[in-house]
Amino acid sequence: TIAPLLRAIMHKKAIHCRYVSLSSGITERELVPHSLINNGYRWHVRCYDRSTQAFRDFVSNRFLDINLLEAQSLKTESVFSDTAWNNVITLDLIPHPGVKHKQAIELDYNMTNGSLTVETREALLGYLTQAWRVDCSANYRLDPIQFPLALANKEVLKNMDVSPLLPGVKQ
Q: What's the CA gap between 5 and 137, in Å, rounded?
């Protein structure tokens, strides 16, 4: 499955495929892939979806058939037009306010003055906050044992299409 996706990325071509999603089951799609992503658990492909006219992530194992299309992809379908991919955001992570011994978390993450600054692409924010177990909720309401880190600068979320993957954030 990865080889034809890599060819499409390298040659800036669209693909016609059958894809199995949790919400729609098997569907036929035309996608323009631009990047491979490993979220720590599985591989995803960042693509422009011609049917929804939006950039999204697709789980690489869920492709049933992949056919490379001959025509070059459009500029609006390229990585350069993917705002969430090109927008790098800075996160200020702190020990969860509910953690009893905050110094343990500070040492675990080599924090300076009780915080850790991390940069990530907006498109990868959900993966990072899940993998690192960061409480992004408004009042830090998630269990501090399960979510030892908290997002201190939640204002970075204000002007973005917030990912449903962010722990504690509702769309």
A: 36
Number of domains in the chain: 2
User: Is residue 148 predicted with pLDDT exceeding 60?
Assistant: yes
Q: What pLDDT does residue 171 have? A: 54
* 125, 166 Cβ separation under 8 angstroms: yes
Tell whether the model's pLDDT for residue 163 goes beyond 80: no
166, part of any domain: no
CB 95 within 8 A of CB 148: yes
Domain that holds residue 126: 87-157
Measure the CA–CA gap between 87 and 83, rounded to whole angstroms.
6
Provide CB contacts within 8 A for 159, sequence distance 6+.
Answer: none
166 near 136, Cβ under 8 Å?
Answer: yes
Residue 43 inside a domain? The answer is yes
Q: Are 68 and 8 in contact (CB under 8 A)?
A: yes
Q: Say yes or no: 75 and 102 in one domain.
A: no
